[in-house]
Automatic annotation (TrEMBL):
Protein name per UniProt: Epoxyqueuosine reductase
Active site: 134
Main location: cytoplasm
Gene: queG
SMART domains the UniProt entry points to: EZ_HEAT
Location in the cell: Cytoplasm
Keyword field: 4Fe-4S, Cobalamin, Cobalt, Cytoplasm, Iron, Iron-sulfur, Metal-binding, Oxidoreductase, Queuosine biosynthesis, tRNA processing
The keyword Oxidoreductase belongs to this UniProt entry's keyword annotation: yes
Amino acid sequence: MDVVALKEEIIQYSRTIGIDKIGFASADPFFELKERLRQQQHLGYQSGFEEPDIDKRTTPSLLLSEARSIIAIALAYPSKLKNAPRSTKTERRGVFCRASWGQDYHVILRDRLQKLEQFILARIPNARVKSMVDTGELADRAVAERAGIGWSGKNCSIITPEFGSYVYLGEMITNIPFPPDTPIEDQCGTCTRCIDACPTGALVQGGQLNAKRCIAFLTQTKTFIPDEFRDKIGNRLYGCDTCQLVCPKNKGKDFHFHPEMEPDPEVVKPLLKPLLHMTNRQFKEMFGHLSGAWRGKKPIQRNAIIALAHYKDESAIDDLLMLLREDSRPVIRGTAAWALGKIGNRKVMPMLQQAKENEQDEDVIREIDKALVMLENV
Ligand code: B12
């Protein structure tokens, strides 16, 4: 088997199936990453969304015996919204992060990887392959870094010279000994814009994130957002792009290569108030195809309430009072109470008092009390 020729064939083929960048890496254990993951775990800096088994995360041969190489792929996604609807005083809108525009990237990258697998298996029928995107055990960034897709930026993202960091990553472990590519040199230099711009100070230092403080993480939780972060969420409904937006390497990077990734502006920058009363079915119909829907309706609704508070949107008061009275979920009732306090119209004080009398949930009662204190001080 001529692995050099096959590698070249794969590279050529990848261009015909909508893979924007491809790289090859050895399947050796990721020793440095192992140390880093242990440290992150020890410091409590992990999100909890990662695969918990650090050995599996860092040892490709535990995932595919006879692993010899990893093929890394990257697909560029759009960063600019065409015909973005305006957010007006009474018609406020929230935003989904760019990685959740268009169709769920897991579906798109899996499709590309499946095609690559078929291409390889047609040439080497007994080849062994195992592909993954995001939810697999491997650390996609560490693979991409080793395969020369991009360097690991101070904002933690893999930054490609061609597309900036607006790329999705995926990979395939194989038992074919492809010659590896060379990693790209770090090009962040002395720049610290991402660290300085992070709204919550989640970037502890270049290349190290305390995920528990990262807004991208906080928007995906299902419980109450800790008080110190609520004012920082702004109008974000899912994810956060700040550390990428300020990155000079992303300046002017906006690629529209994949029709499936084209965002519908009304979906990724939706009106906030209608989100509050969505049924599960309506949620699925409107947002079900986005990667940002994976945690369901509740976090998006909670974030919408926080966004309305951020805008001090008085036109949302009736909707929020209705949630406080009628919603079955404590997180929604409590966040609505807090938002009413934030909006700052004292006329709702009797309604908050009434809700407090009827309320059984201690967390919600605490949120009502916070709101009443805010309103007393208006
Ligand atoms: Co995310 N996420 N995520 N995510 N996430 C993934 C990383 C991935 C790869 C998904 C995908 O495309 N397949 C993409 C990244 C694409 C890219 O880099 N170009 C992705 C995206 C797009 C995002 C967001 C941009 C989404 C958004 O909101 N707009 C943000 C970006 C936040 C940020 O990192 N600045 C986002 C947010 C999150 C949360 C929910 C916060 C968590 C934690 C993020 C984090 O750890 N930084 C999160 C997770 C858990 C993941 C997931 C599932 C695991 C990441 C992980 O293992 N983190 C991956 C998918 C996957 O890998 N399976 C996607 C642990 C840390 C320690 O490792 O950053 O992945 P790492 O890897 C680097 C470090 O370990 C570093 O090098 C590695 C390679 O760069 N490193 C260093 C290792 N050793 C050492 C030693 C030293 C000294 C230093 C300095 C660094």
